[in-house]
Amino acid sequence: MSFWDWPGKSPVGDELPAHPAVYHMLDVAAVAEHLIEPFALVPPLRAALVLLVALHDLGKISDSFRAMLAGAPAQGPRHWELTEVLLHQNDAHLAERLGGDPDLRWQLYAAVAGHHGRPPDLAIGALPKPARVREFGLAMHRVGSGAAPAAEVIEAFCDLWPGASLDVLDLVDATRLSWWLPGLCACADWVGSNTRWFTAQTPDLPLFDYLAQARQVSTVAVAEAGLGGTVAQPGPLFDFALRPMQAACTALPLPDGPMLAVIEDETGAGKTEAALILAHRMALAGKGRGLYFALPTMATADAMFRRSAQIVGRIFAAPTLTLAHGRAGLSADFRDLVSGDARGEDDPSCTDWLAESRRRALLADVGVGTIDQALMAVLPVKHQTLRHFGLSSKILIVDEVHEMGEAYIAKELERLLQMHRAAGGSAIVLTATLPLALREKLLATYGGKGVSPAYPALTVAGGPAVSDFAADPRPVKGPVTVARIETVAAAVDHLVTAAGQGAACVFVRNSVDEAIAAREALLARGIPARLLHARFALCDRKRIEAEVLATVGKTGQGRAGFVLVGTQVLESSLDLDFDVMISDLAPIAALIQRAGRLWRHMEERPAAARPVAAPVLHVLSPDPAVVADDRWLRGTLGRGAFVYDLADVWRTARVLSAAGRIEAPQGLRALIEAVHGEAAEPVPEALTRAETEALGKAAAARTQAVHNLVDLSRGYRDGGGASPDTSYPTRLGGPTRTLVLARHTASGLAPWAEGADLSPAEAWALSEVSARAARLDALPLPDQTTPQIVAATRDWPDWRRAEVRLCPVADDGTICKGLRYDRECGLVFEGVTS
User: Fold this and answer.
1) DSSP string for 10-61
2) What is the Cα–Cα distance from 611 to 438, expressed in whole angstroms?
3) Which among 458, 552, 540 has a CA at the least distance from the CA of 499?
4) Which of 173, 365, 824, 834 could form a disulfide with 290 if both were Cys (CB 3.0 to 4.6 A apart)?
């Protein structure tokens, strides 16, 4: 039987032929040639890798795969695992044609075989020899009569790429490539399998001629998929006068090879624009052919997407741009980009193919998303290597890196930078409050170290550090005085007085329950305070965010007497400007971030135009000099006392009590190191147990991270995995539950979110709200088997019905006993006591 007789896929219809496996393999190889071309690989190695990608589906030339296409139940090794078996079976011949050490070739065999998002798990090389031989024999039995044709395919394909050679590689290089090659192969396979471009064809063309045809088709396919790539273009990015850090980024010497830059400056200093200026120069220098912005939350990613859409078209020529997080489809800005509404010829765009999956989002020229999407490149989850491949061509920009200082995610970030550097990638990290110890760990991933404790600073791993900046000519707010407030009642009094004077005010609480209680206290005093936290349905949160931005954003209007009560969502997700701020005591980094929203836009609202004389951060805190026991914080902050490590919070109170002010930027390093540095003051004896427990939790988190992360030294076959994304979290924390809110209507239950432009799927997604599982599980949530709920969820996929609870909301807001929902208040647990 000839290799022409083995189908690669079932016929699409009765009138169409089955596409031969060899044709499909050449379709994918032709796509891979386009995708691999921009990478700096010598021609013999590039040809060898394309040849191996061409052989990715060799296992389809097997009796078991033919039987499966005919309707037989799948049994034994899958076709992609048989690919590895057949490559091993023909290793002697491949060694003659490709060269290279056997261990080196085996790494790459497993890499192309594992293109379905997971490495092969047949025990080739892992068992004692008798068991290994037995399993190999069973696998070859599944190949059956395909063994000889498969060997013929290898011979024929080697002739198509006669210059292919692995001789330039050593085992270390092959191990590194083993993490990258499966992603290239998977991407090429997705495009090469798409019948929009590669239609089924009878085997009437010789392989050489069909490959020439496939190369022509692939040119169109790659372009239409949005993978054609872009080029950096020279020219200025901004038309405003540059601030000191931004100016420094225009002149920083760029080292040879992959580089990591750390930009440290105060909140509001223009770090994002500085990073874009530096990334533009790096792209022009050949250090990346795209960008990925990694943000701490979906809200910050959405905000960055709106900003980046205005500027990336100046960096690259007509780049593709995607939003990469689980709710990207709910972003109106992203939907408009995909639809092409009001897009100019040279503006960023996004193809339907890229928008179909957040995994594909990392393949666009420019991606904006959460850090989680990038971190999954170093966790043993399905299609981890696809994310790694997508990032490898990009300059990785990690914004708000101080938000990622928790032990588990910090360890993930280290591994991500290590993997990115190994693939030749460069990176920029931005921070306002990064402790020196964490900065050292990040710089070490690129073989560097910090050379100066100065702040602000622009540091390149293994290269120069800039810490001497020109004075910023723009108006500055000056030092922020820190004043302690002892009780919530006193805080409410102060807000009432300040609002009466026309000040725009904010009260930042550590917990949602305490924020709700503070708003109720303000309402009782006649102050119509707004509320913003993470326990709103997404539609209401987006609405409230827009209303708050319109009032106290950079160009907000009607701000006099406005009062907002919020939680940590105010620290980084919104560009807000307040005249008066009260905050719960929190770690120093959080307080510095919060204070960055105080007197923020001095050009728009100079000091003389403010209704208060000076910026003051009022901190709701007990006296740090009086600590009787470990309940020191609870009486003042209630539930907000349990959010952060007590030792960090106490040190923050102590440091700010002594300093009396936050002086940015020059005084920030000393404050951060006084809390987190090696010379930090010991906590009072009453808090030592709490600190010991916190240190233990941090150590456990680091250990868990090391256990969860892929081991780069083992290579993809032994170090990769295929777990669901949920099995290996990108962040630690207690489990949450998602509720989907519904309204009662005459025709049954309808999504809480309303809008004529929303599809049913979008409306239901915008109606979701999450809370801690432990609190929700203690309540009698609505029975999901009631006729109304069954009717409303009938068309939902099984996984969605299993993961979420549909919750009708009564006219008075009741969901069940102990739980209600309000459009202006969010999800409220009734009967909550501090």
Assistant:
1) --SSTTSPPPBHHHHHHHHHHHHHHHHTTS---HHHHHHHHHHHHTTTGGGS
2) 40
3) 552
4) 365
Q: What is the pTM of this model?
A: 0.93
- d(C-alpha 288, C-alpha 308), whole Å: 17
CATH number of 480-662: 3.40.50.300
Which CATH code, of 1.10.10.10, 1.10.3210.30, 1.10.10.60, 2.40.10.120, is assigned to 3-225?
Answer: 1.10.3210.30
Q: Which CATH superfamily is domain 244-466 in?
A: P-loop containing nucleotide triphosphate hydrolases (3.40.50.300)
Report which secondary-structure segment, H or E, holds 506. Answer: strand 505-508
What distance in Å separates the CA atoms of residue 304 and residue 276, rounded to the nearest whole number?
A: 12
Separation of alpha carbons 111 and 56, rounded Å = 9
* DSSP 8-state class, residue 124: T
Q: Which residues are paired to 748 by β-bridges?
A: 745
Residue 822 has phi, psi (to 5 degrees) of -135, 140
Token readout for 43 is 């021609």
User: What burial class does residue 42 get, using C-beta atoms within 10 Å of its C-beta: 0-12 exposed, 13-18 middle, 19+ buried?
Assistant: exposed
* Residue 154: closest CA among 54, 250, 239, 291: 54
Listed in sequence order, the residues at least 6 apart from 558 whose beta carbon sits closer than 8 Å to its beta carbon are 551
CB atoms within 10 A of CB 183: 28
Question: Tokens 């622009």 identify what position?
Answer: 458
Please list, residue by residue across 114-132, b when 16 or more beta carbons sit within 10 angstroms of its beta carbon and e when fewer do.
Answer: bbbbbbbbbebeeeeeeee
Domain locations in the chain as residue ranges = 3-225, 244-466, 480-662, 736-829
The DSSP secondary structure of 427-485, one letter per residue, reads EEEEESS--HHHHHHHHHTTT-------SSEEEETTS-EE---PPP-S----PEEEEEE
Q: Within 13 A of 247's CA, how many CA atoms are on the CB side?
A: 12
Tens digit of pLDDT for each residue in 19-54?
899 999 999 999 999 999 999 899 999 999 999 999
Helix (H, G, I), strand (E, B) or coil at 421: helix
Q: Are strands 736-745 and 748-751 parallel, antiparallel or unpaired?
A: antiparallel
Dump pLDDT digits (tens) for 223-273. Answer: 999 999 999 999 999 988 999 999 999 999 999 999 999 999 998 889 999
Task: Indicate if 480-662 has the same CATH topology as 244-466.
Answer: yes
